[in-house]
């Protein structure tokens, strides 16, 4: 990679800036295509001032992760329609000085699912009603899945289900719905390190026709995925969603189709 006076800077904002695999993934892709971009961490001390920095330094785009996905919104000029309905952004583009927020999380999850299964007409349970769930719920609905959202706090589920236009309920509905379900997605933090012995689904509810995806990426094989795998369900690891949300962002950053195999190898 040759940095020169024409190099375009793309930054990354978020708590995982030290450990993110995205630097390797994007920079290898830029290099492979001979694109004069570089993807670097931006360490945030004050978010409002950091956004001013993006404008004044003509940084051409930033990737955004927790804890800034919602907090960043008031400092942007516009949200695209998808980020607007989700209420969170994971990417900001600097278009001639105008900062525009977008969100590729949900579509990334749908692309990860589509590698293993159809979505159209399938009965899908989404566990959780937080930020990640919002992104996935709209995208699954766009892909014509028959969606039911289940969450510990039912009022949050009802609100999201109303916005998306789907069924909802509490976690206790799992036992009654699972036998007729095709796809189960965990979008809660349950099972994440250090709570690796937790899962929201009793093992006896899994059946062979089921596809199970977890958005928890640490550990890679969560208790949910391990138990689903033991009864021969198809399983989808969180890193597939990570890849596809990044593939989508690459195209937004550069306007060019990304070298997916190279990005995949870096992950
Ligand atoms: P994110 O933006 O990553 O989705 P979030 O907005 O804090 O994070 O949402 C976390 C989700 O995990 C919520 O659906 C939360 O359920 P509540 O709405 O009831 O809080 C769910 N969650 C977290 N810990 C949980 C637990 N121990 N049992 C069940 N659900 C849990």
Can you give a write-up of this model?
The chain is of the alpha/beta class and 267 residues long. It contains 10 helices and 12 strands. It has helices spanning 22-33, 47-56, 81-86, 105-114, 131-142, 154-164, 174-177, 223-230, 238-254, 260-266, and strands at residues 8-13, 37-41, 61-64, 78-79, 91-95, 98-102, 123-127, 146-151, 167-170, 183-186, 211-214, 234-236. It has a 6-stranded mixed β-sheet. Helix 1 packs antiparallel against helix 10 (260-266), helix 4 packs across helix 5 (131-142) and helix 4 packs across helix 9 (238-254). The two termini are 19 Å apart. 2'-monophosphoadenosine-5'-diphosphate binds at residues 128-133, 151-153, 156, 187-190, 200.
Count of helical stretches: 10
Spans of 5+ residues with little confidence (pLDDT < 50)?
Answer: none
Q: How many beta-strand segments?
A: 12
Helix content: 25-40%
What form results from the Cα inertia axes?
globular
Strand order of the largest sheet: 2-1-3-5-6-4
Intertermini distance = 19 Å
SSE pattern: EHEHEEHEEHEHEHEHEEHEHH
- Mean pLDDT equals 96
Structural class: alpha/beta
Largest sheet: 6 strands, mixed
Specify Rg, calculated over alpha carbons: 19 Å
Beta-strand content bin: 15-25%
Unique ligands: 2'-monophosphoadenosine-5'-diphosphate
């Amino acid at each position: 990679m040759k940095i020169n006076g024409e190099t375009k800077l793309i930054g990354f904002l978020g708590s995982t800036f030290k450990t993110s695999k995205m630097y390797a993934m994007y920079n290898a892709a830029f290099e492979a295509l001979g694109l004069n971009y570089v993807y670097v961490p931006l360490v945030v001390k004050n978010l409002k001032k950091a956004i001013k920095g993006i404008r004044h330094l003509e940084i051409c785009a930033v990737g955004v992760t927790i804890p800034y996905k919602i907090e960043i919104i008031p400092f942007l000029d516009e949200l695209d329609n998808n980020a607007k309905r989700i209420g969170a952004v994971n990417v900001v583009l600097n278009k001639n000085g105008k900062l525009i927020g977008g969100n590729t999380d949900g579509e990334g999850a749908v692309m990860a699912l589509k590698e293993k299964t159809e979505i159209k007409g399938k009965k899908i349970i989404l566990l959780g009603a937080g930020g990640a769930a919002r992104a996935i719920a709209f995208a699954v609905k766009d892909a014509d899945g028959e969606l039911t959202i289940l969450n510990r706090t039912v009022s949050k589920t009802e609100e999201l289900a109303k916005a998306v236009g789907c069924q909802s309920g509490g976690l206790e509905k799992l036992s009654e719905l699972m036998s007729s379900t095709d796809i189960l997605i965990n979008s809660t933090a349950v099972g994440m390190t250090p709570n690796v012995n937790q899962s929201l689904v009793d093992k006896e509810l899994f059946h062979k026709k089921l596809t199970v995806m977890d958005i928890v990426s640490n550990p890679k094989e969560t208790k949910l995925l391990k138990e689903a795998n033991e009864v021969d369900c198809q399983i989808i690891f969180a890193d597939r969603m990570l890849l596809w949300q990044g593939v989508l962002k690459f195209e937004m950053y550069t306007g060019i189709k990304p070298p997916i195999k190279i990005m995949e190898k870096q992950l």
